[in-house]
TrEMBL record:
Protein name: Enoyl-CoA hydratase domain-containing protein 3, mitochondrial
GO BP: any one term: fatty acid metabolic process
Family membership: Belongs to the enoyl-CoA hydratase/isomerase family.
InterPro entries: ClpP/crotonase-like_dom_sf (IPR029045), Enoyl-CoA_hydra/iso (IPR001753), Enoyl-CoA_hydra_C (IPR014748), Mitochondrial_ECH-domain (IPR052377)
NCBIfam families, A to Z: PRK08139.1 (NF006008)
Gene transcribed to yield this protein: echA8_3
Molecular function (Gene Ontology), one example: hydro-lyase activity
Pfam entry (one): ECH_1
Keyword Transport: no
Tagged with keyword Lyase: yes
UniProt keyword terms in alphabetical order: Fatty acid metabolism, Lipid metabolism, Lyase, Transit peptide
Its biological purpose: May play a role in fatty acid biosynthesis and insulin sensitivity.
Length: 263
């Protein structure tokens, strides 16, 4: 367990991180961003955790940035310029950090995921949502275009749909979120935790070294031209094939027995 605003439990190779500011709809306050960054930094070198679940308490997954803190930041002599620049840099570090740590991260969304909260879902490697969850990048409704959430959103769903969400501020439901690729699937609210846990445990049961090298390669190759991506991915496959545990996994498959992995 970390600070009260961010809870952590660990079992069977799965770390569960719970945003715990229900009275603020789990807003990404300065303290929440700091707590998330601390966990990301720890997970980056964690050799025992193989999957991560990210969820929120109360009525919402996450309602985005803390607007009260942002308003207070305007009181500085520069009108908040330095604070806002630092805030969005810290937020970007958390979002990219989720994709850089070796463990797959699964968002468990419910209620609403708005603005930077929607960005948080989009930044996770996978996402499962409760039926009825609403997703939006609705900053435009208060005169603030969701430019940083746009980065993650536009890398998850088709650009025209992303642009419509950004310019209209309209929310999408779980059916649209699944169809567009923002979430993997939606389940009844009462099944949400079990479904997310099942997915996390399935991931955690795989060879950690293979998933680690594969996750890094996934995000590297997707930014490359196809020929370059194949060359890079081929090198990664060579490295993976040379793992002792991969050799054991292939031998076990051929011999029709469970693998005896060291990692």
């Amino acid at each position: 367990m970390t600070d009260d605003i961010l809870l952590r439990t660990d079992s069977d190779g799965v770390a569960e991180l719970t945003l715990n500011m229900p009275n603020r709809l789990n807003a990404l306050s300065d303290a929440m961003l700091a707590a998330l960054q601390a966990q990301i930094d720890q997970l980056a070198t964690d050799q025992t955790t193989r999957a991560v679940i990210l969820r929120g308490t109360g009525k919402a997954f996450c309602a985005g940035h803390d607007l009260k803190e942002m308003t207070a930041g305007r009181q500085a002599e520069d009108g908040g310029k330095a604070y806002f620049a630092d805030l969005f840099n810290r937020c970007a570090s958390v979002m990219t950090g989720l994709q850089r740590i070796p463990q797959p991260v699964i968002a468990e969304a419910h209620g609403i995921a708005t603005a930077a909260g929607c960005q948080l879902v989009a930044s996770c490697d996978m996402a499962i949502a409760a039926h009825g969850t609403k997703f939006g990048v609705n900053g435009v409704n208060i005169g603030l275009f969701c430019s940083t959430p746009m980065v993650a959103l536009s890398r998850n769903i088709p650009r025209k749909h992303a642009f419509e969400m950004l310019t209209t501020g309209k929310f999408i439901d779980t059916e649209a979120a699944e169809r567009l690729g923002l979430i993997n699937r939606a389940v009844p609210a009462e099944d949400l935790s079990a479904a997310t846990r099942e997915l996390a445990q399935t991931v955690a049961s795989k060879l950690g070294a293979a998933v680690k090298i594969g996750k890094e390669a996934f995000y590297e190759q997707i930014q490359m031209p196809v020929d370059q991506a194949y060359a890079y991915a081929g090198d990664v496959m060579v490295q993976n094939m040379l793992f002792r545990d991969t050799e054991e996994g292939i031998a076990a498959f051929l011999e029709k027995r469970p693998p005896e992995w060291e990692q």
